[in-house]
Amino acid sequence: MPQTAVPPGQAAPRRPVLQCVVLVVIALIAMTGLAVLIIWASVQPKKLHYSIEHGSVKGFNLTNDKLNSDMDFVLRANNPNRHVSLYYDRIEVTVWYEDQKLSVNNVHPFYQPKRNVTFVDLALVAKNATVYGATARDLRMERAAGEVNLNVKVRAKIRLKVGVFKIHRTLKVDCESVMVPFDFHRGFQRVVCRTDMDN
Q1: Are 148 and 57 in contact (CB under 8 A)?
Q2: Dihedral (CA of 117, 72, 154, 178) sign
Q3: Which of 84, 174, 183, 199 has the highest Cβ tally under 10 A?
């Protein structure tokens, strides 16, 4: 097929140039991703560990199936990695009793260095939280027994820093059967949390 001549004074099409630019950008993205995977594999990061080291309940008042209470926990965050540090960008904490959410709060973002243990204060307030039916009955019974069985859940947007690269992940920490005494002098038993991480 004969080629169409370009009229005088009109620039030649730049499609081949644009195609080259697109191919170069795709190649750079692929190379960067491959470099991150190679570095990540060579570092062999260890799993992060979390536990509830302390918990307390104050000002507990359950009236007409409405709960008001202050709940405080200390979360131990252990990063055992020699080559990976973390940025906790957004952290949401919820406290559950059985299948009902009692309180939710956000924790200030923070940075955790390599091979570091950080203790994070989790302060939550249940304000007129509705507790229904059998759950309210169970909660009253546990109040009379002197301790309450709570579940603490942490959801965080984090960045794992490996060298010059940062990898975004969603962190899920579930701390189940956290037995919190109403009497501070009864002591608290440490609870190891289950940890998961999504892309």
Answers
A1: yes
A2: positive
A3: 84
Distance CA 99, CA 122 (A): 20
Contacts 24+ apart (CB under 8 A), 156-160: 156/88, 156/89, 156/90, 156/91, 156/92, 157/88, 157/89, 157/90, 157/91, 158/86, 158/87, 158/88, 158/89, 159/86, 159/87, 159/89, 160/45, 160/84, 160/85, 160/86
148: helix, coil or strand? strand
Residue 32, Ramachandran bin (φ over 0: left; ψ between -120 and 50: alpha; else beta):
alpha
pLDDT reported for residue 142: 97
The pLDDT tens digits for 7-45 are: 555 555 556 777 787 778 887 777 665 655 555 454 568
Q: Tokens 């027994």 appear where?
A: 145
At 84, the pLDDT band (50, 70, 90 cuts) reads: very high
Query: What are the angstrom distances between the C-alpha of 142 and each of 63, 80, 85, 89?
Result: 15, 37, 40, 36
Predicted TM-score of the model (pTM) = 0.79
Q: Identify the DSSP state of 164.
A: T
Q: What is the pLDDT of residues 159-175, one digit of tens each?
A: 999 988 899 999 999 99
